[in-house]
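WP5 quarterly update. Target: Chitin deacetylase. Source organism: Collybia nuda. Length: 511 aa.
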Amino acid sequence: MLPAAILALAPLLALAQEEGTITGPTTSPESLGYSCDPSKCKLPTCNCASTSPPGGIKPSDTPQFIVFTADDAIQSYTLDAVNQFLAHRKNPNGCAPKMTYFTSLNFTNYTLVTDWFVAGNEIADHTMTHVGTPPADEINGNLIALNALAGIPLNKIQGFRAPFLAYSADTLKLLYQSQFTYDSSAAASVPVTDPTTDAYWPYTLDNGMANNCLSVPGTCKGEPKLPGFWEIPMYSFFDNKGAAGPHLMDPWLDAANGATKANDSATLEYMQKTFTDHYNGNRQPIGLYTHPIHVSLTYPGSTTTKSTVAMINAFLDWAQEQPNVWIVSNEQLLDWVQHPVPVSQLDSVGSLKCSTPQVDSSMKICNGMPGNEDGLLSHCAFSDFPFYTCYGCPEVQPSPNNPNPPQQVPDGQNSRFRLPQNCSTPFWDPIGGKCICTSDKCAFADNSRPIGPNGVNLTGGGIGGAFTSASATPYVPFNGDVSTAPLGLWPALLVGAVGALIGSMGVLTRL
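Structure tokens (predicted):
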């Protein structure tokens, strides 16, 4: 049944891939009307929209950040899709790169959200049901459900990206009212080599927006004024057509240079060219903004080729051969922007270190660490999409109107305790209702190696070679041995595969 369903919906997949792409500049000097006084707007709480590195640091002393993000539902195949690009890599300090996952909750397996967060990655908000220009209940409901059923601390859910990149001035105001730290929905759509580029370093909205002025009414010209609220622009790649040839999310799906179909060689060429323009200029960040389903080799019906996966790895291999290149999450990028230091001092930046929670591997605790939580997960067998969680199944599926339903308690068992404010996720025992770590000293250990900021020979991913290689990129699946998956997981994935194709949540859309 599944292959037939996928075949029948192939035209919808093709349509979804084209949805929301940008075709040219979304900002102009005339539409901008932006003014900011850097003598009054100072870090770490305020930053003017500027093409220059923050803190007055020279470009040659500035790290080149590659921001890696993913959008939509979290499932084993989406995490594996991300891992095929990141799991084998190291940053210049020897630490594994981290990334930001903008999570929507339809078709999401909550326990994998917990696991991905505890592994050090950033979990951010993408609404509950993947709706553009979202109302408050879609934004805030996602916060509540991620906290209740995935155990993500509320103060760790700092970022938001609008589905389809469809936001309004009111969206930004809602985020500000809900105490988000940043939004990352606005495109930087003019090349950094253009004098009118809108490729600004992350900035606060104390003086309004400075991106998407031509496409989002009620923004720019000093509006909306949201003191201390950050915008992290999404930086486009540009093919040979320059400003008329931008590529934003999933650029490997786009045809380059006016061609009629995607070409991996052409994509790699313009990605390297755009990276070089950033690197040789003011070193504004550059981003790989992915929908993992479009680069999954394990999702049923996927049209991704091994050549495309190898091409993306070839780009990252090449980029990591350049000095001072770091693959980071939005959270890590923003921490550096707020507290900028030159590359010679990057060993002092705590967010770039590879601290990991220290939990006895023999302890049985449902804490987001697969070795500890085996056999302790609750299976929530809802008909349209079943999922697993450490925190007890709700009586009904979460929704914007009811993001934290009452817990259903199986006969002979007790209710599970949700994460409190005073305990970190890997140390909270939701079954026993206790925190196993009561001291700051036992919470995390810094496993990074202070080897300095340049290690060109250390940063390469080790794949290299021609990206047209037929061999799959080696990586360890995030779930480990799938033969040990909990009972019911494969039915969940099967239902999810169909649901993700036909649902309205947009997991198959470009934006």
